[in-house]
Amino acid sequence: MRKRHDTIPLLIGLLFFILLISAGCANSTEKSLVENTNENITIGSTINKEIDITFKTEEAIQDTYDYSEFNNEFWWYGTLDISNIKEMPSGAYYVTYSGQLTASN
Questions:
Q1: Cα 2 from Cα 5, distance rounded (Å)
Q2: What is the dihedral of CA 75, 79, 84, 87, to 10 degrees?
Q3: Core vs surface per residue 40-73: b (16+ CB within 10 A) or e
Q4: For the segment 13-67, what is each residue's pLDDT rounded down to a tens digit?
Q5: Which residues pair with 82 in a beta bridge?
Q6: Alpha-carbon distance 88 to 63, whole Å?
Q7: Which residues, in sequence order, are CB contacts of 46 under 8 Å at separation 6+?
Q8: DSSP class of 60
Q9: pLDDT class of 105 with cuts at 50, 70, 90
């Protein structure tokens, strides 16, 4: 019979591994932001942004999506519009939103 304290390091290692894998996949559906850091970014600068979101039902799909993120020392805000909708074999909907984000502090 294994002692309880023998399995604790194993469980901690397994949890760490799962978190490491999920962190690597978290942003897989987002495309771009500020890729060229040589540009002079100031408050009011704009960038193009595209994100993908999966909805369980068609009724849950929003026409626009308010989006914000922190990148390159600025908050970027904007309202994105639907650019594509794809129905998945599972019945869920894969929706692409795109538009411009504006830099703020």
A1: 8
A2: 90
A3: ebeeebebebbbbbeeeeeeeeeeebebeeeeee
A4: 544 444 333 333 333 344 444 554 546 889 999 999 999 999 999 999 999 999 9
A5: 97
A6: 19
A7: 100, 101, 102, 103
A8: G
A9: confident
